[in-house]
Amino acid sequence: MNRHYAMLRLVGLFLLMYISLRAESAIPPQVETRGIPVFPAELAAKIKPYLNIRTVQFQDWQLSGTNITVLVALRPEKGQVNQLHVFNKPRGKPRQITFGKNPVRKAIINPLNDRSIIFLRDEGGSERYQIFHYDLATGKTIRITDGKNRHTGVHWSSKGDQIAYFSPKRNGRDNDLYISRLNQTGSEKLLLKLNGGGWKIEDWSSDGRMLLIMEYISINESRIHIVDTQSGEMSPLTPKLKVPVSYQNARFDPNLRAVYFTSDDGFDFQRLTRLDLSSGEYRYYLAQSKWDVESFELSPDGESLAVVINERAVSKLRFLNVNSGAEILESRSPSGVISTLKWGAKNKIMYGFSSALSPGQVVYHDLGSDEKLYWMKTDLSGIKPDHLSIPVREEMRSADGSKLDAWIYRPGQIVNGRFLATTPIRPFPVVILFHGGPESQFRPRFMGKYNYLISEEKIVMICPNVRGSRGYGKKYLKADNGREREKVLFDIERIYNAIAADSSLDQGRIAVMGGSYGGFMSLHSMVKLNNFLKCGVDVVGISNFVTFLENTSDYRRDLRRAEYGDERIPEMRKFLEELSPLTHVDKITRPLLIVQGANDPRVPASESEQIEKALRKRKIETWYLLAKDEGHGFRKQANREFQFLTTVQFLRKHLLNKE
Questions:
Q1: Rounded CA gap, 305 and 322, in Å?
Q2: N or C end of the chain, less CB within 10 A?
Q3: Is this prediction's pTM over 0.70?
Q4: Structure confidence at residue 25 (pLDDT)
């Protein structure tokens, strides 16, 4: 009897394990697939630890006397999307304060009340963001905006009694400026009607009377304006010049003596500038730097500047004296990327930091004592940190003489603090991962789920910054605008030649992958280098520039025309059609995986549907994955897991020849 019972129990345990493993690979309820086979349950279990990492994203903090409130976004342990958490001591356990099926985006603490928080949230990836207020004392959340239109750029007033934001609710195209008082229902006021969709609030003056807003025309051209918060009158702070100039990161001096901003006026890179509001004189900081100042923040007393320089894609944090321009301190950190600088007092600052070995940290720095503390780090306990890859940056020169670089992640192991790349018995397969934008930049961040491909499947990942990427000066940034975009083929060919010349890499096993503009780059590569590739992965990518421009959201259309060209002009329309992968779909003979969110307001789902239809018509193996509750990229954990499981299985079959 006992033996029979033991056998039944053993069978039951195996059955439970089987059911559990099968659940890992189940198709999420909002996901639709075509041409995707059933996955082995064992593969899902093997990948799971790499997908379970919950990245910490620093949002804001406030120092009130001896009390510190730190705000981060983090996916709850058993949750699907990022939610807000607070904590108040180093390495303290964060407390979740928001809940729901959709993720929280930007969040800011009231400058005078650390119990009051505003944040953004949308539905199903639609990017129709709503503004919410959370009261930390009562735990109550209230939606401030109308629940249907898009709202962006939210900013607290210096007194914490008002917020300002943009919305295209007037006509669906132009982002008008609104102002609202939190303690007054129905207090929303249209402060200023604006033209265009590219507006951003940079700062609110300490006396509450003025807003600094930035008018984004293109990645190469923007302007800064001052808006009177009472009358709504707008005055230009920076002139409109014959040559386009990019202005970024504008801040008021706390005493309203000056405005600080970065600009490439007369320079190839973004340079930190101070404009004296009385004399009109300009002053430049770090004049010898040959890299972009990507962000900065003034200390509350206006005496110090925290400046982040993007040096070869690595963040360098430096502290300057405002009056002398002399460097107070250079903060030394591992190679990585700094985000969200926030002062708490005249000599205390926090920021987010990510690197190849850590997806998210919250760093506290006391300039007075030069003490640096890591208040919070992302937990990596589910994987082997010593098997993570530390990338190497390599420079190349294309056939037309243009330089590019790439970050290369190889399989290997960290021994005594040094990364030792594995010597392959057989040359490694390669995935070329293109970034989006196109004006983004690949930087030495944590590779997240892709660490599985590197560590477990022994795939080398090459992440290039082709022409048009930011961080290398405005000439390089403009090098793919309009008709110049066809020259990006030189960069793609150069990457392939670098692979062919490296004996540790298998030029017969190359795949391309990318999202958004990176999806176009993958499709473009498959058209131009079809015979040299094994397969491709297109995530929310552009397949036809003309239909993309005609169907993207109204508030984005003119901004994208400035980058890609205006499809309404016959000559440009013809060029864009010729450049589009859909026009040359007959040249694609390799398998393709297509991933798309149904609610994407940027690259409509029709872009994926039309390339899928064209490939299936020609009987090319095509895997198609559509999430009905996602937009421009997947944010829900179940969908993200299934997407990556699909990607791994696709690469195992078509790149690695593993059935």
A1: 6
A2: N
A3: yes
A4: 63
How far apart CA 586 and CA 546 sit, in angstroms, is: 19
* Per-chain mean pLDDT for the chain: 93
Q: Which of 337, 316, 338, 318 is nearest to 326 (CA)?
A: 318
Identity at 122, one-letter amino acid code? D
The number of CA neighbours under 13 Å toward the Cβ of 84 is: 28
Strand segments, DSSP code E, in 526-570 are: 535-539
Angle at 321 between CA 316 and CA 325, to 5 degrees: 85
Q: Which of 484, 486, 481, 632 is nearest to 561 (CA)?
A: 481
Residue 132 has a CB neighbour count (10 Å cut-off) of 21
Give SS3 for 8: helix
Torsion of CA 33, 521, 218, 396, to 10 degrees: 150
What tokens were used for 569?
């002009």
Residue 467: band (very low, low, confident or very high) from pLDDT cuts 50, 70, 90: very high
DSSP string, 318-343: EEEETTT--EEEEE---SEEEEEEEE
Q: Go through the domains of the chain in sequence order and give each one's CATH number.
A: 31-35+40-51+383-654 (3.40.50.1820), 56-197 (2.120.10.30)
Cα(170)–Cα(276) distance, integer angstroms: 36
pLDDT in tens, 143-196: 999 999 999 999 999 999 999 999 999 999 999 999 999 877 788 999 999 999
Strand, coil or helix: 532? helix
Q: For residue 431, give Cα distances in angstroms to 265, 287, 513.
A: 38, 39, 7
Coil, strand or helix: which one is 27? coil
Contact (Cβ atoms closer than 8 angstroms) between residue 476 and residue 459: no
Distances (CA, A) of 418 to 358, 413, 415: 16, 8, 5
Q: Which residue has the tokens 């007037």?
A: 170
> DSSP for 275-302?
EETTT--EEESSTT--SEEEEEEE-TTS
Q: Characterize the bridge pairing of strands 221-228 and 234-236.
A: antiparallel
- List of residues 6+ apart from 478 with CB closer than 8 A: 220, 468, 484
> What is the Cα–Cα distance from 168 to 432, expressed in whole angstroms?
38
Q: How far apart are CA 542 and CA 545, in angstroms?
A: 7
CB 237 within 8 A of CB 247: no
Residues in CB range of 219: below 8 A, 6 or more apart = 246, 439, 470, 477, 563
* Element of type H or E holding 227: strand 221-228
Which residue do the tokens 């789920």 mark? 449
User: β-pairing, 140-143 with 199-204?
Assistant: unpaired
Buried b (16+ CB within 10 A) or exposed e, 590-612: bbbbbbbbbbbbbbbbbbbeebb
**256 neighbors 207 (Cβ within 8 angstroms):** yes
Do 237 and 224 form a contact (C-beta atoms < 8 A)? yes
The rounded distance, in Å, linking the Cα atoms of 41 and 24 is 7
Omega of the bond prior to 239 within 30 degrees of 0, cis? no
User: DSSP E strands: which ranges in 516-612?
Assistant: 535-539, 592-597
pLDDT (0 to 100) of residue 16? 44
- From residue 73, alpha-carbon distances to 68, 83, 132 in Å are 17, 5, 15
